[in-house]
Amino acid sequence: MLRGKMKIRLWTIGRHFLSSILLSICIFCFISSSSEARVNCLKCHPQVRNQLTLGNVHKPLKKRNCTICHSTHASDQPHLLIKPTKELCLSCHKKAFKVKYPHLPVMEGNCDKCHAPHASRYTALLKKPEGEICFDCHQKEKIILGKNLHSPVKKCLSCHKAHGSNHPGLLNKPFQKLCFNCHQKTKITVQHKGSALKGNFCLSCHNAHSSKKAHLLRTYAHSPYAKGQCQSCHLMQGKKVGKVKSDNRSLCLSCHPQVENADQFIYSHIQLTPGSNVCLDCHSPHLSDIKPSLKGSPKQICFSCHRDTKNRLLSNLAEFKYKHPEAKKGNCLVCHQGHGSNNLFLLKEGGINTCTSCHKRHARFTHPIGEKAIDPRCKTKMDCVTCHHPMGAKDIYNTIFDHREELCIQCHKIST
Question: How many domains does the chain contain in total?
């Protein structure tokens, strides 16, 4: 009898325990429902609740659907995000930025570099006004060179696309069309003595953003242009300036014969596109803000072709974290020759000598390098870049692997 009562009692306790568990599950499911979860999130995150008063609120927050972006329990992403930032944003913002020139933050998935995730007082959830946010990355002193400003500078998106473009410089349109979008072509032609102008030549004389001179004219003048000797390069039709005398580099070499020596080098920039005037890829024939008549800084010019180097140097990814100081500044010509060189990568003195011209201690003491040191992996001679990548590497000292062990065992295999 006693055992029977105990069994009944245990069964009753078990039933109540099971009921408690079921009740707990029901309560959990209820408070985890979309309507209740919305309240709970803002209750513990008052700083997010306060953002609801801002002018532009992200739609999920407006509807209190926090779980569209965040996990309620755990995540391997920062801020309990359910996916990496780029993947998360594109899951709603379906437009894929498959363009020739993507904006670097977009390419790396750093949407929150420009946009606030919850709310903002600015359009498109920007963290700052359009005329200010670009200067977080683009140095203002390199864009605002003088007191004379191009009016669209106050609104960068008048000329540029924010996420990416199929035109250089993230421009809205090709150069040929962009300038004439605001400036009447007939009026400009008259002001330029009847020359058949093309939009891409506007920047040959004018700075697109600002200048110390009137009409946004650039600072330094090419000698024939400064002297008004248009006939040095152009065919003249009375006072009207006509076509250039030659479409290839011979036009420039007739005054700059020393540059022709670059043809003697094994690696030469001026041997590129022999049918056209390759000099004009880097130099302006009229006006420039940078000597010697460069179209932009060496960094800008080099990046226009060497996009892999650009992406590596500008990247914030961990695998490219460490960059050589001069490379980071864009001082390409500290190590490389502009026109030509007998050394690979147009280095001034070859891989080893270029590096040791600054790193003098390593000229006296270093890991074996040179003709007698052969890399066992590819059977070529070792030099500095066998272990170091100046344009961006994942480990300190610009080493391509962890310098404490991983780098060494690439060649020095450990027997076990």
Answer: 2
User: What one-character-per-residue DSSP string does 6-31 give?
Assistant: HHHHHHHHHHHHHHHHHHHHHHHHHH
Q: If you search the block for the tokens 């007082």, which residue do you land on?
A: 121
**pLDDT, tens digit, 9 for 90 and up, residues 33-55:** 444 444 578 889 999 989 989 98
Helix (H) or strand (E) holding 305: helix 298-305
Helix (H) or strand (E) holding 133: helix 130-133
Spatial contact of 334 and 347, defined as CB atoms under 8 Å apart? no
- Domain range for 75 is 33-127
Structure tokens at 373: 């040191």
Query: Side-chain half-sphere of 215: how many Cα atoms within 13 Å?
Result: 10
Cis ω on the peptide bond leading into residue 292 (within 30° of 0)? yes
pLDDT in tens, 222-239: 999 999 898 999 998 887
Rounded CA separation 137/117 (Å): 19
Q: Could you tell me which of 172, 202, 364, 162 has the C-alpha nearest to residue 295? A: 202
In a domain, 71, yes or no: yes
HSE (side-chain half, CA atoms, 13 Å) at 152: 16
Residue 181: which of 206, 160, 199 has the closest Cα? Answer: 199
Residue where a domain terminates, one of 127, 160, 188: 127
φ, ψ for residue 129, nearest 5 deg: -60, 155
Q: Which of 287, 279, 291 is nearest to 247 (CA)?
A: 279
Cβ pair 375, 411 in contact under 8 A:
yes
Rounded to whole angstroms, what are the CA distances from 367 to 70, 312, 373, 393?
50, 26, 9, 19
> Does 11 fall in a domain?
no
- Residue 175 forms part of a structural domain: no
Q: What are phi and psi of 340, to 5 degrees?
A: -175, 160
Residue 413 tokens, joined: 């295999």
100, 127, 154 - which closes a domain: 127
Instruction: Please name the amino acid found at residue 374.
Output: I
Confirm whether 301 is domain-assigned.
no
What gap in Å lies between CA 402 and CA 399, rounded to an integer? 7
Q: Give the global pTM.
A: 0.68
